[in-house]
Amino acid sequence: MRSLLLKVFNGRIVSPWLILFIDLIIVANAFVLAYIVRLNVLLSQYSASNVIFSSLWVVFIFLIAFLISGSFKGVIRHSNYNEFKLMILTSSAAFGCIFAFNELVIHFDLRWIRISRLVLMLHFFLSIALTIGFRMFVKEIYIFLTKKETSDGVLIYGAGDMGQITMEAIKNDKDNKFNVVGFIDDKASKWNIMLHSCPVMSWTKALELGESKQIKVVILAIKNISVQRKHEITKVCIDRGWKLKVMPSVRNWVNGISNQKQIRDIRIDDILGRDEIQLNLGRIMEGLDGKVILVTGAAGSIGSEIVRQLLRFTVQKIIMLDNAESALYDLQQELLLSHSDAPFEVILADVTNTKRIEEVFQNHQPEIVFNAAAYKHVPLMEAFPYEAIRVNIGGAKNLADIAIRYKVEKFVMISTDKAVNPTNVMGTSKRICEIYIQALSQLNNIDTAFITTRFGNVLGSNGSVVPLFKRQIEQGGPITVTHKDITRYFMTIPEACQLVLEAGFMGEGGEIFLFDMGEPVKIVDLATEMIRLSGLKVDEDIKLKFTGLRPGEKLYEELLASKENTLPTHNEKIMIGKVRQHNFKKVNKLIEDMLFALQIENSNLLVSRMKEMVPEYKSQNSRYSELDKQIEGNIF
């Protein structure tokens, strides 16, 4: 019987005309039932022909109302609040017409079609109750038939709007294996009430009931929850062997639709990130309104997120420039799906190609430039300093020089914490970029405001440690960590890019903005947490392997984020670094000589030039350490 009913439900959608017919039958029977209730079953007092005739014109009025509103066109097994509301409005409109017509009948004393006012009122409420009841009955039968027999006990953390949306998403997904047994909420005022026939309880009470209710999953469905609280809940769930999942906020729903498939496993960035940033949206909107914006390195992790953030504002056009063909194509296709009407254009080009970049500026006249184009892998740049100088330094100089010629309003350069007291080629190349940009901003008679932003590692960015650890876990390990004491600062990609936008329109020109990166994280702790979030055990399921520091790598990164060497801004997460000034002519000459030397000098000579320009650059665990002994004095 069950399988037969499932075939009926799953095989096809019932014709809306059949639903209309059933609704009319319900309305007709509700009319007769209203007479029965009104007369206490003493129907002999009324003529059967009068009752039949009255019911026919009442049903006719309801038919017109149903046809106009289309209340019968929904899929019954997926009926929701909006369809119930439509049914109530339709019935109310029909009742209004019938009541008005009946008042005319009473006025002209047409007894043969006159209907008692009480009968009309009873019929109105019965019609609504029975038509909605029919839909709810079909929906509940469908849920019962399609519910999986082996369901995990689930607690939804959050008894607000998000929690109830999560409950509906679970109930409406026939393939889910979740059996919601209760809600958790931190507000005492919500405890001991019932939602969707499930109790609302405190976190402490939920832990007490965990065993008896056979809890297997906790779903976080709450808008405002601190990262610290997430971390505490995560730890308890891991210790108890419960899976922790997250219901994304409304703005992160896929295709704008909430469903059970969007309930995802909690990720490391959920508990390593920080609380939501409060941006000065007014300042950003004013700065971006109607502007043509060029984003270089647009296909990378940072560049692509800057593009996504910019699409939230009323910009005139976004020029996305990158030399990575496949990644640029993927970004283009993503935006065509999610922002098909957005004003963007894709350009495949290399930032070091002066003629090509000149054409881009000439054709599009960008007013704001975000330069996220750079090589960032420390070991690779240590092996190939030529590329670090050519792309990171040469590309930034090329863009900045052209930006001045075309009177760009703002030029925002993305830098890194590895530029502080650098120990490797990559960090030094970015420090030289900072020096050039800052020196350039001191020139008189330029219209461009040059801004530098500096932050640490970004969770989940291309080539970062988190995707590497994830792949190693999927392959069964081991997870490779360079050193047991190595620490890094982390921030999420959206957080970093939001702060870039804020700093970009906060600066007047020449500043190096530092971001509050929070507390440093030990990489071994990060690896351990990722293993545990995967439901595995360290050293039992996945082993940790220490491989030693890589060339140019240091144990601790620096941000110059102390009170002694930074100035505060109105945003507590953004500070201005106090760094020494440089003479533009001298800096420009050194960089031009370095770029010219790319054609004739070997790696050692090129790195020597970098060390002369950045005297605090001391190589660590690198073949270039010997050069430090040869460099004497400071040309600045």
Compile the SSE list and pairings:
Elements: H1 2-11, H2 16-39, H3 48-69, H4 81-107, H5 117-146, E1 152-157, H6 161-172, E2 178-184, E3 194-195, E4 198-201, H7 203-209, E5 215-220, H8 227-240, E6 243-246, E7 264-265, H9 268-272, H10 281-288, E8 292-296, H11 301-310, E9 317-322, H12 325-338, E10 344-348, H13 354-364, E11 368-371, H14 378-383, H15 385-405, E12 410-416, H16 425-441, E13 449-455, E14 457-459, H17 465-474, E15 479-481, E16 487-488, E17 490-492, H18 493-504, E18 512-515, E19 521-522, H19 523-533, E20 544-546, E21 566-568, E22 574-577, H20 584-597, H21 603-613, H22 625-630
Parallel strand pairs: 1-2, 1-5, 2-4, 5-6, 8-9, 8-11, 9-10, 11-12, 12-13, 13-18, 14-17, 15-20
Antiparallel strand pairs: 3-4, 6-7, 16-19, 18-22, 21-22
Helix pairs in contact: 2-3, 2-5, 3-4, 4-5, 11-18, 13-15, 15-16, 16-20, 16-21, 17-19, 20-21
